[in-house]
TrEMBL record:
UniProt protein name: Uncharacterized protein DUF1573
Signal peptide positions on this chain: 1-23
Keywords: Signal
InterPro entries registered for this protein in UniProt: DUF1573, Ig-like_fold
Pfam families: DUF1573
Species in which this protein is naturally found: Maribacter caenipelagi
Keyword Transcription: no
Annotated transmembrane regions: none
Length: 156
C-alpha cells in the first residue's frame, strides 16, 4: 500500500512540474495594448452636475399647474445619456432631453407639476443615466392651499 501511494505521488509530481512553461512567454503584446485601450475607455464616465437639486414653488393654489427647469452640466469626460426620468407621483411629469449631452455641455430637464394635493407637498424625480452612480435624485415642493381658501402658507 505504501508503494502505491509513493508511486502515485511521484507520478503526480512529475506530471504537475513537467507542464510548467514560462507564463510570461505566452502573453501577446497585441492583447496587452488592446486591454489598455479598453481600460482607458472604461474610465471615461459622464458626470451630471445640477445647478440645484431641489425647487420650491412656494405657496400655490390647488390645481394650478407649475413648471420648473433643472439645469445640469456634463462635467465628466464621456457623452451623458439620460435613459429614464420618473417621478414619485403621476402629478409630476419630468421631460428629459433625448439627445446625448457632450462633455462640458449643458442640458435641461423640465418638470411639470399639476398642483394637486394639499398642505406641504414634496415629490421626487429619479433621473437614470449612464453616470457612475447610475441615478440622480431631484425634489420639488410646494405648499398647496385648497381652491377658494384664504392663503395660509406654512407656519414658521
Amino acid at each position: 500500500m505504501k508503494k502505491i501511494v509513493l508511486i502515485v505521488g511521484l507520478v503526480s509530481m512529475v506530471a504537475f512540474t513537467s507542464c510548467k512553461d514560462n507564463a510570461s512567454s505566452k502573453i501577446k503584446t497585441d492583447n496587452v495594448a488592446e486591454a489598455a485601450v479598453r481600460d482607458e475607455a472604461a474610465k471615461a464616465v459622464p458626470v451630471m452636475s445640477f445647478e440645484k437639486a431641489e425647487h420650491d414653488f412656494g405657496t400655490i393654489e390647488q390645481g394650478t399647474p407649475q413648471e420648473t427647469v433643472f439645469t445640469f452640466t456634463n462635467t465628466g469626460n464621456a457623452p451623458l445619456i439620460i435613459t429614464d426620468a420618473k417621478s414619485s407621483c403621476g402629478c409630476t411629469v419630468p421631460n428629459p432631453p433625448k439627445d446625448p449631452i457632450a462633455p462640458g455641455e449643458t442640458g435641461e430637464l423640465k418638470v411639470n407639476f399639476n398642483g394637486s394635493g394639499q398642505n406641504q407637498v414634496t415629490k421626487t424625480i429619479t433621473v437614470t443615466a449612464n453616470t457612475e452612480k447610475g441615478s440622480e435624485l431631484l425634489r420639488i415642493k410646494a405648499f398647496v392651499n385648497p381652491k377658494g381658501a384664504a392663503p395660509l402658507g406654512p407656519v414658521k
